[in-house]
Amino acid sequence: MDVTLPAAGFGPGVLLLPEPGTDPAESVDRLLAEGFAVLTGPADPGFTDDRLVGDAIGVVGLGPGGAQALELATALGDRVAAVVACYGLPADPGFSYLGLTAHVLGHFAESDPTVPLAAVDEAAIRLGEATDVRPEMHFYPTTHGFMTDHQDDLQSTVAWQRTLTFLWAHLG
Fold first, then answer.
1. 137 DSSP 8-state letter
2. Crossing angle (nearest 10°) for helices 153-171 and 25-33
3. What is the tens place of the pLDDT at every residue in 119-151?
4. Which burial class, exposed, middle or buried, applies to 3 when counting CB atoms under 10 A from its CB (0-12, 13-18, 19+)?
5. pLDDT of 31-56, one tens digit each?
6. Which alpha helices (DSSP H) does the chain contain, by range?
7. CB 71 within 8 A of CB 90
8. Which residues of 9-44 are buried (b: 16+ CB within 10 A; e: fewer)?
9. Global pTM?
């Protein structure tokens, strides 16, 4: 994994799993500006870096990266303290969240043919039944991709502010 450090030269680590086909630079910049060290590239469970603050990392995934974020947090258990899934869920509706200990924040569009609202509700129920985690889910009056494609800057701003507050609450 590659590490991009904030101005301080250290910070809580956040693995960014961008939506394929999008430029992650804006997402990286948002995280860096808040003081997070941004991890990119293939996830490496054994990765360590003395410049990362804390015992666990956060994971932010967009689109299919949202699904990967939830799957990774489930696989790594307490190595992940906070996971943010942005309009992405595991493809298997019966995915087992057993092992997930991270706090979960989800951002979903009300008009998203790839992730219907019923699928989000079902995933939240399954997650709650399998773990002690109570996911925090938000629904936005927009469509898929709103956090990276500038189709709805207001909803994107709200979602990113919630994301940054959430990450600081669980990593800072």
1. E
2. 50
3. 999 999 999 999 988 999 999 999 999 998 888
4. middle
5. 999 999 999 988 887 888 999 999 99
6. 25-33, 64-76, 117-130, 153-171
7. yes
8. eebbbbbbbbbeebebeebbebbbebbbbbbbeebe
9. 0.96
